[in-house]
Amino acid sequence: MCGIFGIITNQKLSLGKVALEGIKRLEYRGYDSCGIVVHYNSQLLVKKDAGKIDEIHKKLKLDDFPIDAKLALAHTRWATHGPPTKLNAHPHLDCNKKIAVIHNGILENFLELKAELKMKGHIFTSDTDTEVISHLIEDYMSSQLDFKEAVAKAIKRCEGAYGIAICHADCPDYFIVVRKESPIVIGIEKGKTSYCASDIPAFLPYTRSCYIMDDDEIAILKAGDVEFYELDDLSKPKDKELQNIEWSIDAAEKGGYDHFMLKEIHEEPVALRRTLKIPDEKIAELARVIWGAKHIYITAAGTSFYASLAGKFIITKFLSKYIEAIECSEFQIQLGDSLQEDSVIIAVSQSGETVDLIEAIRWAKDKLQKKIKIVSITNVVGSSLTRYSDHVIVTQAGPEIGVAATKTYCTQVLTLSLIALKIAGFRKILSDEDLKKYYQALFSTPNIIEEFIGRNSDLIKNVVDNLEKSHNFFFLARGISIATAKEGGLKLKEVACRFIEGYSAAHAKHGPISLVREGFPIIFIAPPDETYQRLVGNVMEFKARGGKIISVVVDDDEVITNLSDATIRIPQPGNKYYSIFSPITFIPALQLLSYYAALKHNLDPDQPLNLAKTVTVH
Ligand code: AGP
User: Fold this and answer.
1) Residue numbers annotated as active site
2) Distance (Å, rounded) from C-alpha 567 to C-alpha 550?
3) Residue 188 CA: distances (Å) to CA of 148, 229, 378, 486, 555
4) Average pLDDT over the chain, rounded to whole?
5) Which of 443, 465, 483 is the last residue of a domain?
6) At 30, is the pLDDT very low, low, confident or very high (cuts 50, 70, 90)?
7) Would you say the CB of residue 411 lies under 6 angstroms from ligand 1?
């Protein structure tokens, strides 16, 4: 969950500046401390501290290193082992200060290795698992192995997940990168400069040519060149395919917006339009697999799980088959031996790197091998998830930097909806006219969001002003909108630090309603679908107990509007064709509400406390 950046060049570059900008672009992965090491004149120059990158830069001038330096590694941390302090910040050096290591992931057996190294006299200066690596390499080098061999030998002893970059003071012409279960990409400017990073946007301003590292691979990065080896076989380099990344750098910059979160909400119409262009054959391929399955599971974490809940509802409607939605962290424990042959698992993940999801999928694959199919929906080409999947759709949201997922949620629900309508077409359960109307509604989602965003910011700011003093909220809904309520609530929780309960409006009577007092805010998600009449009853129940009712409704809504203290109106027709896709069109209202609530409480919506965008630890 940390961000790694490395560069080696034969050009005249301000390496400190490039490295600093590199970790700034990865700051969404962790932001409690950072550090840079620059190789210069057979020495390793290190600057590191606890705090956010900008604060540390102010103090230490992170871009100020000798201008003719050619190699730098940089790291932004999300603390796992040891609190965020200067000593625990990466890079971590060996006893002789010749080897520097930056690491994303967790070494599960670090205590055992640390004890062994301490016995041999190694002196540790941090609480981290990472520091073990530099000492272990040092140890192997002291028994006559060269740097590359020592790295391979040391890494083979490390259990857990890692993306690691390592440099050596006596090796000015290369640095080494290894990967197991934590993402690492290598960017190449042929003949000039090579980069490694935890994510593509870090080097996107310089190159779009990149290699995606596989597990148990070791890469030797030289200026403008790279060689890959299997960790187990350093004798001959492997062939690997160079990929061309289509993302534009604008997508990874704030582009005039105050925050990535706001920018990414505004990008939703474009992200949806691009995702609607996913080739029809691709959608049909996945739809066919799901349609033909005996048992269907859908699994994910966080926002992707709520997108999955919405998708499950929409697919079930047109497939008439039960789909079991299970949070990925619970997947193995809940299913155990009951996981059935001829099943399909739909795995949904923005990053494609969420460790619990990868573990769930690997477990299922190990258990049932070819008798189970993995269908995945992710936003990142070549991510770990894609490697364990039989069928993949890559959503076209573009890079999402804000820690709170926004545009990727919309594109996930859209993709699942496209699959659902494709299944409806295969099954011929709708008249041509009906199917056409559903497609029309789905293809209108970008325009609805565009119109909504264009006209509603002030209204939402007003609602936020009125809720300023509230600390606890309910987000209530029925049917498909329970997914919207949960996701909207998660956003407010994440970025505005309010306590929320996203719940079924019907079920809330069985306990949660006892919390309601005069002025308790309740956000009702109320598209005019088959649940609307009953939801009206729920709104009245909560209003009768003094609840402050804020509703999200369609433009021509009257009944719930009249019961509400404030309404946010979504510009879409009030019919079933549109209502089923309301998880896409209603969510921007709740994302914007959360964004403005964060600003109201002086919180940075892009960097919520304690969170990292990609969760690569259990
Ligand atoms: C979203 O706002 C969250 N930060 C988080 O819940 C996220 O959705 C979750 O960690 C899953 O990530 P993934 O989609 O990359 O797998």
Assistant:
1) 2, 613
2) 6
3) 21, 17, 24, 42, 51
4) 94
5) 443
6) confident
7) no
